[in-house]
Amino acid sequence: MRLILLLLSLTVMSAAAQTGKAPAGETWPDNSVMDAWFQDTTKVDVTTLGRQYVITDYGVVCDSTVVQTAAIQQVIDRAASEGGGVIVIPEGTYLTGALFFKQGTHLHVRGRLKGSDRIIDFPYMTTRIEGETCTYFCALVNADGLDGFTISGTGTIDGNGLSYWQEFWIRRKWNPQCTNKDAQRPRLTYISNSRNVTVQDVHLVNSPFWTNHIYKCDHVRYLDCYIFAPTEQVWAPDPTRGAPSSDAIDIDACTDVLIDGCFMHVNDDAVVLKGGKGTWADQDDTNGDCERILIQNCRYGRVHGCLTLGSESLHDRNVILRNCHTERADRVLWLKMRPDTPQHYEYVLVEHITGRCKRILFIHPWTQFFKPGEREDMPLSRCNNIMLRDILVDAETPIDVKPSDKYELRDITIDGEPLTL
Questions:
Q1: I want to staple 269 with a disulfide (CB 3.0 to 4.6 A). Which of 23, 198, 305, 414 is the partner?
Q2: In sequence order, what DSSP letters do the residues of 273-313 get, joined into one string?
Q3: d(CA 38, CA 408)
């Protein structure tokens, strides 16, 4: 049915809807002042980032069949040793395993950077995955401890995920309890412990696992990116299967993140907030909070959730989703409540959303792969100050909220009216 949640007249547009930018002096849901940084959607001028290192000038050949990881990494290392610069992927297709960018280096994609379909081309190392710091396989594009790292260009970073997806579904058929880690797959990009990062204009497609993962970063911008993974037809025995766990953007223990003007169509959640999981997750310094996250002016194809908090989240605060359009989302806002983890989601605003979906607000206990531990002082999980307004969406079941003795829900409002549970 058509659900119309209107706080303002449809003839009156907000300043944000008119300009696509946060108005000066705008505030977060808790009424703290939004920093002017969130108003800046200016693209990075690649010509200001230093010398351009076109990989074909340094022995890399245009070949979609030969893995050239070492040759491309040598170009990155050379640029870093010479003071930094832009690694340019020219027209054509270039097959590679894991690449590691260093301070002062950047990635500019004009052609297609294509990932190997063999996991051996992605070293396993200490990394971050599914709310845990552990040993796992690295991503296709990796950046750690960098200031000012940029990925740009209108070309494509292609994860070449088909073999990985099929192997996952075969494993899941053989063992229904198969987890994401059991099926060994690389992510497309992993940026950690970095700041002042911009990912702009690029096509990020066919990731074997999560598409973009940022961890313990601040001041990260995704501008006008195209993020895609197929949602069906990847495994012949069951054509309804798509690319498993191909989340568009996973924000893990990060602050100050802007996502503006992106298109997302993936076989899982679109923007996901993470930060840790487990009974003692709040006492582990490798975990952390997500705070000051702004998603605006985006379009969604088919996704499980436009904005999802959890399932591996601890504390998320001051999160805004606005001025977006969804065509086939299962949920607009999904709050995953994990029984084995102390979680707190607060001051979340969803406004000015159009299109169609199955559910607008979905809050249920999480039921997949969790292990409660014994803890006498286990905090009660909470959701508070969750606000939805000016939602104009066709929804099958607009509000689907399930109370539980495992969490507390309060101050949830729709167009200023309290949600009755």
A1: 305
A2: EE---STTGGG-TT---EEEEEEES-EESS-SEEEEE-SS-
A3: 31
| CA angle (77, 79, 83) in 5-degree steps | 120
Rg (CA), the chain: 21
Residue pair 202/225 in contact (Cβ under 8 Å)? The answer is yes
- How far, CA to CA in Å, does 81 sit from each of 46, 132, 193, 219, 230? 19, 33, 21, 26, 39
pLDDT band (50, 70, 90) for residue 420? confident
Q: What is the mean pLDDT of residues 241-253?
A: 97
Q: Average pLDDT, stretch 65-71?
A: 97
98-123 burial code (b ≥16 CB/10 A, e <16): bbbbbebbbbbbbbbbbbbbebebbe
Q: How many CB atoms lie within 10 A of CB 415?
A: 15
Which of the four pLDDT bands, split at 50, 70 and 90, describes residue 371? Answer: confident
Instruction: Give Dmax over CA atoms of the chain in angstroms.
Output: 65
Q: 73-96: buried (b, 16+ CB within 10 Å) or exposed (e) per residue?
A: bebbeebbeeebbbbbbbebebbb
Q: What percentage of residues in the chain have a pLDDT greater than 70?
A: 94
Residue at token pair 């119309």 = 4
CA dihedral 259, 265, 268, 272 (to 10 degrees): 0
- pLDDT-derived band at 294 (thresholds 50, 70, 90) equals very high
d(CA 172, CA 178): 5
Whether this prediction's pTM lies above 0.85 is answered by: yes
**pLDDT at residue number 24:** 57
Q: Dihedrals φ, ψ of 160, to 5°? A: 55, 50
